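Long-time lurker, first post. I've been practising inverse folding by hand and with some scripts of my own, and I keep getting stuck on stretches where the structure tokens seem ambiguous. Below is the full token string for one chain I'm working on. Before anyone asks, I'm not after the true native sequence, just a reasonable design that respects the backbone. If someone could post their per-position residues I'd love to compare against what I wrote down in my notebook.
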């Protein structure tokens, strides 16, 4: 089982230092995922460029709602020249204040097909979200992305073995990086209202409670031959990784 770790850059130098530290301390971490957030000044391209120039594997996220296919192609081509091996293309949400914002209209299947045609050697991943819509609609959307050339999925976090087993059953031969993320009492409302998550009734919103669930999920992920994608948004990354005690 391989591990991808998501980190949010504050400065380029501290981001590089933190990335190297976690990769050195946890050998199963094979790359750093870099989300593209409106609230963060350093975007995925700049952070990925800095990591790749310093021989640190980067997995940039590109939000399609904000860019044209030409812009996306230009940025990815520059990163491939620096050694980029894989990327994640997501549709993206409009800003909270959409005044003056004009979405690109680019859809994930369209972008996946375009980038895979231009750069067939690049691993192009799509998003998979078990919470946002019905199982059938999400599964059909996943199959559409695969038909357009997606190499697999980086998923939104899972919080229950039952839900994960359902998806593993339907995508047994698909490359999947299964998302795991600790949720605190403070962040619970975000996950329930924005991401439409329904937590198991006995879910504990503290570090050890999260890690008990995540250790079980990691065991299941490894047994299924999949990989894991860790997103410690509201928890100290170092504390979370050590508390997992899995690698």
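-- Answer (accepted) --
I ran through it position by position. Result:
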């Amino acid at each position: 089982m391989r591990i991808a770790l998501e980190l949010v850059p504050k400065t380029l130098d501290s981001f590089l230092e933190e990335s190297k530290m976690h990769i050195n301390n946890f050998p199963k971490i094979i790359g750093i995922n870099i989300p593209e957030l409106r609230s963060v000044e350093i975007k995925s391209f700049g952070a990925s460029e800095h990591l790749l120039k310093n021989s640190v594997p980067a997995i940039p996220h590109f939000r399609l709602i904000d860019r044209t296919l030409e812009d996306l192609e230009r940025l990815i081509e520059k990163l491939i020249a620096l050694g980029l091996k894989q990327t994640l293309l997501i549709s993206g949400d409009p800003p909270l204040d959409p005044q003056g914002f004009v979405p690109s209209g680019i859809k994930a299947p369209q972008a996946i097909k375009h980038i895979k045609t231009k750069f067939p050697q690049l691993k192009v991943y799509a998003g998979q979200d078990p919470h946002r819509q019905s199982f059938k609609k999400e599964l059909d959307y996943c199959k559409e992305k695969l038909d357009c050339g997606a190499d697999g999925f980086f998923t939104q976090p899972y919080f229950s073995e039952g839900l994960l087993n359902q998806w593993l059953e339907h995508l047994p031969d698909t490359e999947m990086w299964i998302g795991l993320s600790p949720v605190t009492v403070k962040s619970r409302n975000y996950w329930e209202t924005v991401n439409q998550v329904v937590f198991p009734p006995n879910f504990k919103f503290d570090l050890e409670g999260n890690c008990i669930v995540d250790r079980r999920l990691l065991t299941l992920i490894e047994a299924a031959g999949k990989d894991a994608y860790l997103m410690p948004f509201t928890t100290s990354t170092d504390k979370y990784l050590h508390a997992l005690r899995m690698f």
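A couple of notes from the structure itself: The CA atoms of residues 62 and 89 lie 5 Å apart. Strands lie at 3-6, 29-34, 58-63, 86-90, 123-128, 152-157, 175-180, 227-230. Happy to go over any region you disagree with.
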